[in-house]
Amino acid sequence: MATIQASGIMFAAGLPSFYSPNARVSATMNAPKIRMMNPISLPKLSNKVFVEDNLDLKNGFKNETQNMEQHHDDDDHKLVAAKLFGIMEAVADRVEMHKSVGEQRNNWNHLFLSSINGISLTAAFMTGIAGTSSGSSLLALKLSSTILYAAATGMLALINRIQPSQLAEEQRNAERLFKLLHGELQTVLALGNPSDADVNEAMEKVLALDRAYPLPLLGTMLEKFPSRVEPAVWWPQQQIRRKRRLTVRKMNNGWDSKLEGQMRRIVEVIKEKDLDDYLRLANKALKLNKMLAVSGPLFSGLGAVASAFVDHHHGSSWAVIIGVVAGALASAVNTFQHGGQLGMVFEMYRGNAGFFKLMEETIESNVNESDVERRENGDLFEIKVALCLGRSLSELRNLAATSSENGEANNIEFASKLF
After folding, report:
1. Could you tell me if 269 and 366 are in contact, meaning their C-beta atoms sit under 8 angstroms apart?
2. What band does 58 get if pLDDT is binned at 50, 70 and 90?
3. 3-state secondary structure of 12
4. In angstroms, rounded to a whole number, what is the distance separating the alpha carbons of residues 242 and 373?
5. What distance in Å separates the CA atoms of residue 85 and residue 92, rounded to the nearest whole number?
6. Are 145 and 309 in contact (CB under 8 A)?
7. pLDDT tens figures, 7-23
8. Which residue from 23, 53, 106, 185 has the highest number of Cβ atoms inside 10 Å of its Cβ?
9. Does 215 score more than 80 pLDDT?
10. 386 neighbors 359 (Cβ within 8 angstroms)
């Protein structure tokens, strides 16, 4: 039951009543009671949904960042590989250039050798005939032999200055070393994951080879008669040692005190036997070549002077003898010097000394490196040293043991069995 009291218009049981200002009306309404049979349940908002959505969003950002970084690394890798391929193309071009120039300068040696010998012998023959001639024929023979001797003298002075056989040997060495560098770059690319350090190292090696074996004759040609014999150097002098790509994960990177001592003894043998011996031989070849380089033009010049004094009427038999003998000696000296290719022999000995100098520096740079992880793997390095010296691993170890027992490297054999 509900009772409603109001001032003003009253409604009772839905019927109107007269207005009375002081009237009090009471009305009663019967209404059914509302029962809540099943309570209404609202959905609960769980924090777990927000957390999962937040994690998914973070993972999405993280994956996207990783993909971008991976894409960036792939671009860097492709760029480095492109640089190495570019260097390989330049190296391959240099191989062909040095090969062509080497063949050309080897032809120079043969052509100059045969031409100068032919000119000298012809001049000597004409000088001999001039001794038995008279009149206009004598004058013609004298002039002809003198001109030929003068030409031979100039050509001898020229080829003794440039040494074509030595030039050809330089180009052959450069061709071989550039091929070796080309193979090293192929190995770097085959192993994968090249770096900018590989690019810089390759550039330094290319430029070092260019300096060691120049192509031009004027300005940059190597000194053919140096005052002091030094090993050939075709590698960068200051190489930053870094951890090798072929490093095997092994305790101490394959190095121990025994291997270090073995390598130090091998370096001593290389210094005192192989390197010293090739420098000594190069010095002997250089001295002999110097002597012949002076003797050849001297003999041909003497023949030119003697042929000019040939005169049948004044009994100048001495001029004929000197002219003929000088021509023969000039041909003999030229044949021994350039036919025997003494310049090539000197460059070969100098190059061999450079090979042992490189081995010495390579071994010392590894042994003196305090951080073994920055060294080349010890097992691999031992194999490389053995192959470079033409020995097996057991022979290499026996060499080190023998030098240790004798105490002096002079009492043992040479380190290299190759040359």
Report:
1. no
2. low
3. strand
4. 9
5. 10
6. no
7. 443 333 343 433 444 44
8. 185
9. yes
10. no
